[in-house]
Amino acid sequence: MESLTSILEFKKTCVSYTKQTMAVKYVSAAIERNTITAIMGPSGCGKSTLLRAVNLMHNLYPNIRVDGEILLNGENILSMEPIDVRRRVGMVFQRPAPFPTMSIYDNVLSGFALNGMKLSKSEKDITVERCLRSVALWDEVKDVLNKKGTFLSGGQQQRLCIARALAMKPDVLLMDEPTSALDPIATKHIEELLLELQKEVTILIVTHNMGQAKRISSKSMFMYLGELVEYGDTGTMFSNPTDERTKAYLTGKMG
Amino acid sequence: MNDRLYRIILFVAALVVPIVCGGVVYALVTDAHEAFEHFGFLKFLTSSEWSYTEGNEQYGALPFITGTLMTTLMALLFCIPFSLPVALFVGEYFRETKIASVLSTVTDLLAGIPSIIYGLWGFYTLRPIIMELNISPQGSGILTASLVLAIMIVPYAASLSAEFIKMVPNDLKEGAYSLGATRAEVVRKVIFPVAGSGIFSSYVLAIGRALGETMTVTMLIGNTNNIPDSITSTGNSMASIIANQFGEADGLRLSSLIAIGLILFLITALINMIGKIMIKRARIV
Amino acid sequence: MNKLKVKHRLAKDKLMLWSICLLAAMTAVPLLAILGEVLLRGYDQLSWSFFTESTPTAYKAMKAIAAGEPIPGGIANGIVGTMIMLGMAVVVAVPLGILCGAFLAENSKSRFAQFVSYLTDLLQGTPSVIIGIITYIWVVVPMKGYSAIAGSVALCIMMLPLIIRSTEETLKILPASLKEAGLALGGNKARVMMKVQLPAAFGGIFTGVLLAISRVIGETAPLMFTALGCSLIRFSIDKPISAVPLLIWEFFNDPNLQELIWGASLFLLLFVLTLNLLSKYLAKKWNH
After folding, report:
1. What pTM was computed for the model?
2. What are the structural domain ranges in chain A?
């Protein structure tokens, strides 16, 4: 029955940078469809490492090993072609980094261009408008679509990067501290946006900001020293954590 | 030593550079003056005659300007298919690995080989091959010189381009990978556009090197004073005509050779200046 | 359909990787070919007398060839000439270049320093054959003859920008705290430069000098119009003198002496490449 609601499932997932040390240790968890799941923990706990395993970012670095299984709609992605996986799993990074040589318009379509997919002009226009609308950027940039993406403010750039990921219609959107480089107002915009977006896409978000996790996520993971300590409803976890370490972290006694 | 004296000493040492450069320009202009006066500046640039029969001396720079441009552009053409892969190898694909530093050492050593030895190798190894392949009967010529010239500028173009390829932010590359791009697609659609102006400027500087290269070209170009009519024909570059005839020249011919030197100096200075300005811009972006 | 496309893209990716490896590896071919040819053909010419005797006359060489003997003599005149000219060039260019580099590093923001810096680039990019012409006009004409002095002036002008740049760059990457600590201890700028900054920058400057030497030692064109060449071992600096690259050029043009080309080239090549590798090695060692 679980496979009906869970879109993504970690099964004893391990990530190691060197032979001796494991950055992520035997994480098992099922992520529900159309939810926002927050991954929390002190810095160095392996939360970003776990997130990056989901779209096989670690394959780019030959020294990093990922073991166990990660199921996407029941298929183990670790044995799939990275370029296939990455099209179905989008990612937004800490620092907004639109492609500096492309216009706003081309940035939204960059996924298609990179994958060598050709769209007609009308398809392009529709996609750009749809994606920019869904990140609430359309009204702000519709008259400057041909300007470079780097000309936007930090918050707008990050929304552009989300739009660029959404354009590929991913099943899952990974977000690695997407607001840590932004000011509070831009952060608020992005959070509101994510609450809207969970209708179309399952979101897995790494955050070091407990308030953010509380505001937007329905489920939360707490990681410590590479282990998944606790995973459950965000409300329950904040009001009544079962593990001592989670409690210590949430009450500010740790990292 | 007090600060004042120290500052004066440093200043005087620094003055040497402007003095030398000023002296270069002054000496070239004064000694080239006779040729320009005799033939007229434009006529000297556009005349293709080079004859030193006494009483009817005719000197024009066009064959040598053509020879220089042809060898340089062809060298650039032959150099790109090798220098670009080297730059990608060192700057992206095998970045910071042992094998990349081995390849860097290889290109460093290539850059260190004196040009007269490149000339020898071209003459004794490459020239017979060109003759064997029936590309040209005498083996020497624009093509042979450009091939060796290309090898000589690979290290310069490659090491500078690699620097710019390395500077492409990792954020951008990961962003592209996260959208499902392959490495080849990241190289073509992210690295090349972003590092493009830097890579371009490194080729401009490589051209600056090739323009004035003397011994290799002198030994391989065939040394005929006509405008080359095909890429396999013989010719002379500005540097090679000077190397060939400077020692035996006097009077009007000497002045004409110095005038060619002045033209070469100006072209090289211009190309280098453009390259340096472009590099500064590319580094800021 | 989609599967096929992915396969196609992955194949393209592999093809790109392999072509890059292949083409990059091919740059080693000319290096090995040149080294191999010079080594194989020059190896048997190297002997004690090759380094102690001077170049034979064309007549002597012809006689030896006719008798089926190896050509007598060697390149000692060239080695001595190279060393004399290089020595004189180094003695002038190194201190001057270091002082000028120090000026650029200390005043990097001043207009004048930027101008000097630009001209240094200009000088570095000037083709060596033009340095030859200039030295001919400046030195050979007034002195009414070719000389070792003229040759060393040409080499000096070519080394100067290289030494200026390496000094400037090494001084600029020294931590600012070093200079500040020296000044805080009451040293004046001159003393801090001499006692703190230059010693700390010694490694970088030294490797810069080695690299500059390896660059100019194989230069031929500028010496053709300045030092001219000479078949005797000479120590006087106001007369024409030989140099190893000049000898190679001479052998190349004289059919009777062609056998000597490869020994002389081997010597020059090994010398230059050793200097090159040594400076790279030292730079690495002193950086860590």
Report:
1. 0.93
2. 2-250
